[in-house]
């Protein structure tokens, strides 16, 4: 059994071919798709975060809105770039959104990926400390964020406050109990997956790995997941971790599906260069349901994960993406024992 949700990058463009032509469209359609996904029986609505781009950027207003419109599904990010974040302000936003959603947030965070501008985090007022780099800065922001989510007081109260204070040091409010255990790290390598386990974070792995050993993508990702689980056990954490993978999966059950994704049946892994190193990109899955089931049954990383996020082409509109989610839940998931 697996939790199955969708992951939207929230692209928008004024092109006549796009169903999502403005930032307003992207946000409102994201809410509508989350509502539709819940009605279809999906388990999660996740959103990518990019800055300086025609995509979803500031996640917490959207997460709060989805939380107010839904009642069951998990609501998350995949992922928030911690280079851009004030960790204390983020803790306030996350606590608020989680309380609105009744404790359903599942926040994916990471050091970030290549962005649209050079060192965009500097425009947000952040710069690595001397002797460190942007990845160190992201992990330091994450460390503070996670520490604050624990809920312990740390701020010295004013002896003459405007309103009465509780005794002791003060914490960031609102505090949402349990949110710390629902934070995920987007890991692009095996070493980062091990670090993720050491921090007591859930593992979020996408269709991109920032390393290549020559084996198929799903096998390399499965090794990453196994190393994560081994490191988790070695760290002695007292709860079971969660692991998600994302995939582009399109059952071909209509002429419209065939028009959009029929060519993807020949998709293969790709190896390229990213930030000066090799990277391996996973293939898309698109085919008639019976052949799709056969192909997905061989994906070792999906088998190892407890959560599958379906990357959706959001510019094709809410109705079509609802159709894609429903097709996976109806024609694929039961045959593979995911439902």
From TrEMBL:
<dbReference type="GO" id="GO:0004497">
    <property type="term" value="F:monooxygenase activity"/>
</dbReference>
<dbReference type="InterPro" id="IPR036661">
    <property type="entry name" value="Luciferase-like_sf"/>
</dbReference>
<dbReference type="GO" id="GO:0005829">
    <property type="term" value="C:cytosol"/>
</dbReference>
<protein>
    <submittedName>
        <fullName>Alkanesulfonate monooxygenase SsuD/methylene tetrahydromethanopterin reductase-like flavin-dependent oxidoreductase (Luciferase family)</fullName>
    </submittedName>
</protein>
<dbReference type="GO" id="GO:0016705">
    <property type="term" value="F:oxidoreductase activity, acting on paired donors, with incorporation or reduction of molecular oxygen"/>
</dbReference>
<dbReference type="InterPro" id="IPR011251">
    <property type="entry name" value="Luciferase-like_dom"/>
</dbReference>
<keyword id="KW-0560">Oxidoreductase</keyword>
<dbReference type="Pfam" id="PF00296">
    <property type="entry name" value="Bac_luciferase"/>
</dbReference>
<keyword id="KW-0503">Monooxygenase</keyword>
<dbReference type="InterPro" id="IPR050766">
    <property type="entry name" value="Bact_Lucif_Oxidored"/>
</dbReference>
<feature type="domain" description="Luciferase-like">
    <location>
        <begin position="9"/>
        <end position="257"/>
    </location>
</feature>
């Amino acid at each position: 059994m697996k939790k199955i949700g969708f992951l939207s990058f929230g692209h928008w463009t004024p092109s006549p071919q796009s169903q999502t032509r403005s930032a307003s469209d992207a946000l409102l359609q994201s809410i509508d798709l989350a509502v539709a996904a819940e009605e279809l029986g999906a388990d999660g609505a996740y959103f990518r975060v990019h800055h300086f781009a025609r995509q979803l950027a500031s996640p917490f207003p959207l997460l709060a809105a989805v939380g107010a419109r839904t009642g069951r599904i998990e609501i998350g990010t995949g992922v928030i770039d911690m280079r851009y974040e004030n960790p204390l302000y983020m803790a306030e936003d996350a606590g608020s959104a989680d309380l609105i959603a009744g404790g359903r947030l599942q926040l994916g965070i990471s050091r970030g990926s290549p962005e649209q501008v050079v060192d965009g985090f500097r425009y947000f007022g952040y710069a690595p400390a001397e002797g460190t780099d942007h990845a160190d800065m992201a992990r330091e922001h994450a460390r503070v964020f996670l520490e604050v989510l624990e809920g312990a007081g740390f701020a010295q109260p004013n002896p003459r406050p405007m309103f009465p204070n509780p005794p002791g040091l003060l914490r960031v409010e609102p505090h949402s109990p349990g949110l710390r255990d629902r934070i995920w790290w987007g890991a692009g390598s095996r070493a980062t997956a091990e670090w993720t386990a050491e921090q007591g974070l859930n593992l979020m792995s996408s269709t991109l790995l920032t390393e290549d050993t020559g084996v198929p993508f799903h096998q390399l990702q499965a090794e990453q997941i196994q190393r994560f689980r081994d490191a988790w056990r070695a760290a002695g954490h007292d709860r079971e971790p969660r692991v998600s993978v994302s995939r582009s999966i399109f059952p071909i059950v209509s002429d419209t599906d065939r028009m959009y994704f029929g060519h993807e049946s020949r998709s293969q892994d790709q190896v390229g260069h990213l930030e000066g190193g090799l990277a391996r990109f996973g293939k898309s899955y698109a085919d008639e349901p019976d052949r799709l089931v056969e192909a997905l049954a061989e994906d070792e990383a999906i088998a190892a994960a407890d959560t599958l996020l379906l990357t959706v082409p959001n510019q094709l509109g809410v109705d079509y993406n609802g159709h894609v989610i429903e097709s996976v839940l109806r024609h694929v998931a039961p045959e593979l024992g995911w439902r």
